Amino acid sequence: MIRTALVLAGALIVTWNVARAVEQGETPAVAAAPAVSNSAPAEIPKADIKQAISHIRRAWSSDAPCSRVERCATYFESFAAALTFNDGSIVPLAHEHRLNRSGHDCIQEARAAMAQGKRALAVQWVMAAYVDNPLTRNWLADHPDAVLEGLRHFGD
Q1: pTM
Q2: What residue spans define the domains of the chain?
């Protein structure tokens, strides 16, 4: 319940920032950028990182393209309202979709997004690999920092 309240509060803040930016003639993408907290991030449990790596590994070995059009065309923003990272930042989900990509392709997209510094998009691509498995997808959304660490350690 607290997480839901935080997610909704974050979504409202992002919406307000975008509206304010439009009024002032700024680009909404700049206004929607989350503020980074100065507090030290919480320690990520090793068990969570291990589970994230397991999910990433399973998706990596899936070469079959997403075949259910109604699921594959689902935009990431319909997964949830936002991702909350350990540093306190709340990031809205991207307006992207998986289409005919395989789980392997999704992990490649996640690694590319992470290399570009787009950590929220990286997590969302891993979530997209599990578009047909809402329990796993929700676990990934609830543990974005573990997913990022899993991507960093995947293949080591």
Answers
A1: 0.70
A2: 1-33, 37-153
